[in-house]
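CHAIN AND CONFORMATION:

***
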Amino acid sequence: MKINNNQNQERVEVIALFGYSMTPCQPLTFKRQGYEEIEVTELLKSQVKFIGKTTKHIFDVLAGNGEYRLTFDSVDLTWVAEAI
């Protein structure tokens, strides 16, 4: 995935499963603007970071032919993706 901005991050739409087993949130697919949906094939790692009043939920995943980091911002309710 080639990201088109200087931070190597791009806003994406994510379909996620909440409250599943021992994982409170699991991304299933994500879609970049103007591209087809990409299926997440494996959740590699998840973590939560507290930054001031913001909570960032971070998911390292395998999807398509690459590894990605999907980050959910609990304040503005947006997802961003970056290739890792």
Q: What stands out?
A: The longest strand covers residues 38-51.
